[in-house]
Amino acid sequence: MTTGVHLPGGQSPEGPDDDGAGAGAGLQEPHNETRTRSSVITARAAATFEPVGRSVATARSFVRDTLQGWGLADIADDAVVLTSELVTNAVVHAGTSAEVLCLRAPDGVRVEVADRYPEREVPVQHAPVDMGSPDSEGGRGLQLCAALATRWGVEYSPTHKQVWFQLTSPERPVGARTAGPPLPVNLLPLADGRVRVAVVQIDRTGALTAWNEDAEELFGYPEEQVIGKPLTDFAAWPHTPGTSTGVADALRLSRWEGSYGIRSASGRVVPVYASHLRVRDADGDPSTVCLLVRDHERAVLQTPLRQPSSDPAVASDGRTADPFEVFIGSPAPDDLDGLLQRTVERARDMLDGDAAFLLLATDDETELEVRASTGLPSARQRFARVPVEAGHGRFGTARMPAVHEDLSVVHGAVPLLDGTGMRSVVTVPLKVEGRLTGSLGVAAESPARYSNEEALRLQFAADRIALAVESARLGELERLRRGSLSFLVEASDLLAGTLDRDQTLALMAQMTVPTLATWCAVYTIADQSSEPYLSYVLHEDEERIDGLKELLATIDPPDPVPTPGARIWAAPAEQAHQAALRTSLRSIDLGEPATVSSGIATTLHTASAVGGETVVLPLVARNRVIGMLTLGKPSDDHFRQEILELAEDLSRRAALALDNARLYSERTAISQSLQRSLLPPELPDVPGVEVEVIYRAAGEGNEVGGDFYDIFPISDGAYGFAIGDVCGTGPEAAAVTGLARHALRLLAREGFGGPAVLERLNAAILDEGARSRFLTLLYGELWPQADGGALLKVVCAGHPLPLRLRQDGTVSPAAEPQPLLGVMEDLDLYEQTVTLDPGDVLLCVTDGVTERREGTRMLGDDGLADVLTTCTGLTAGAVAARILRAVERFASDAPSDDMAILTMRVPEPPQD
């Protein structure tokens, strides 16, 4: 890949007058009205990618890094997806290099992808435009351009075809998270004189550490009187309805807003509106900063602005203002969660409730998902799902307004409020064009708080806010969909990049944690008769992994159900709850609940880690369940439906990758087992002769090699040896290898001489018919001599000639070449006699040694002889090792052919 540089003002490295796109880009400025003008280009980056598959992933990384470096993270996902498709078209389908140019403009970015195959037609028909099926391979990149890009187009030149697209950055207020329009003076909130903001700070023990002058003015306590005392000594809790959370609980939250009372020095309760923010200092110690104003001045801290009371506002012209105008008309936050949270807080305040909640409907309108709440344990309720039709009658459906005067009388009428202490509740539907999109409710701790009048007020507000909520929800879904598409593209690349089973399992877990879940466990199934096995566990907190493994090991694995989709698995949360309960009781029995042991603390720590919702997704590949992907949340959290759908897409890809890894591992194991069976398990001990063999198989271990060797006893002190090479690899070559090795042993032990053995082997190979392969073979018989030498009779049938090294360093062939086996029926073979004196070495190799290449150079027989001349005085093992090192050093690339090296040496007699 050739990468360009980032330049301000659109200048290239060649100079301001150069119209190139930067180093490595090679693109010309197209003269097109839709193109981003160079005069407004603020930065550019370019790169060229070679026509290989890995370039697609590299191009995605280049575009993502570029856009994030320019601060355009909002549109990076879309740009990555489009670039991926267009670069794939260039390097895979067109088979040329791809040139990518990123141009930054004030309002967004333009990305151009060019290839060098301009003759290749764009799969688009004109009048009308038809891009074919979304499942077809051709034209999919242009379909995505049409769907995601602000503008796009195709340009041709004599040497290039270029596809470009523009993405516009979303507009955002500068310098603020939310902003509101100017309001008339009569609509501004009231303040009695100077607004005083008390700033207090509370340490991790709940004691006050800071108390400013406004706090002293509001509550009458001087700083020295309150510092070091708990805030609970001064708080009257709760002062106003709407909070069921205690002071200690609120101070532990990362952020909290609400109303309560502070007992002043005079003894009266001062109603305040408070905003809490939890921070930590440089040493890591947490504390809470509280801002407090008088309750009727809450608009100072609460955003956006609201009327100080629920009474209708009176305009300057005497008209009664709409009581919901400020509720609806305030500028919405720039994210869905902020809008929903503001909505429930305003609904609670509007009806003077203790709690409020807002649920959004799923696409099929059968379930509602909790998305925002106030005054409720939100950690337990967020993303929980409840059915739309919960019972009989108008009180059991979310499609109609409903008022429950006392929930203690009708148990389970509103499951969301079970166990919260709420007694009365009013709920209304959110509808857009007659379709249910959600439900809004307000609850109180006292019974009979609400009537039909409050239901009508809440329904009026819901009708006003429903369209804004639905629009924000659809916007969030679109962003999530685009992010999901980019996530799945990256996941597919990672999973396709390995065929190792363990690495595939690790990738599956790492892609889900923490992006989709807090923890993940993968169960695998070896075959239909096997039980699921816990193969991999990962938690976002590494210290919890071991405890999570131990907990899951005590639970029966989930059933391997092939039904697609996620299903709830309650066993981990139940087991965690039971383990925490048993541990707590045991610690109490021991009398030291806080410090009894680290084991108890670890158990409680682990239990909290899996206390939320757990789902199981089947891993189905080739119509068989090969495992389960288990995802979990902590502390009663729930999964969003969109996350579960993304996890389901990921599980399908992961299942196929895992099954491919399994098949590859099985094939490799079979090949390696077969290869071992074609070689002798061990070398015999030949008296008076040193024997050494080195065998190196080429490739990744999934192919059976055609090279083989053998040394075996015949009879009466004679030994047979052979080294051969079958043409090709794979099962056909393995069949000939096995035939040759076993036939040699059998025929030699029947008393046949070397030529007769090879002639019969040649006939057996020819009998294989179309499956036969030709074979080069060096076969010999060895007789150790009493005088310290060795007598050999050898036949070299088309094989590289054996080399003899004498003590004086001379090297010469030890046999003459003869016809190879498996080609002709009638062979006239003969054997030659070789005598090895003490200190002599006989070297036999396969052609993987002599044909070792580096470019146009080849080691050859002469090169091998040169290396052997340097081996005088070495043992047989040292000679074989030196030959192997010389072969490996001859070329930098990995060997492309199998190698077998057989050395035999007659040792010199010991010196007296």
UniProtKB/TrEMBL annotation:
SUPFAM superfamilies noted in UniProt: GAF domain-like (SSF55781), PP2C-like (SSF81606), PYP-like sensor domain (PAS domain) (SSF55785)
Q: Name one GO molecular function term.
A: phosphatase activity
Signal sequence: where?
none
User: Which portions of this protein are annotated as coiled-coil regions?
Assistant: none
Q: Can you give the residue ranges of the PAS domain?
A: 199-229
Give the residue ranges for region: Disordered. Answer: 1-39
Q: Which UniProt keywords apply?
A: Hydrolase
Q: By what name is this protein known?
A: PAS domain-containing protein
Q: Which organism is it from?
A: Streptomyces sulfonofaciens
